[in-house]
Amino acid sequence: MLMHETMVAQSLIESILAEAQKQNARPTTATISCGALNAINDEVLCFAFDAIDRETVCDCMRLKVEHKPLQGKCNNCKKTFTFEITKPICTACGSDAFDLLADAPLILEEIEFETE
To answer: Is the pTM of this model over 0.85?
Structure first.
């Protein structure tokens, strides 16, 4: 198990537990998002999450990871577009003069709770 994913999993669980306490409810699913170039291994993160969540209200909850595509901004037409490594051009005007924007950070997007 990689240390980075373990630390991320621990931080996610702490955030989810805090929100579960505020909501006075049991979490069932958490969705996180991250950029395409993130250093997170989804399988290792989910494994670490499952190992750490035991004996908490997070036990047996599902963790979903959504990857946000890398974005570019065209220097010609100024449009923002989804960057594709196999076709590195602006999708609006076809220019190859663009800047890559910062990769999306890892964010806890949503927590779903059991409804009674």
So the answer is: no
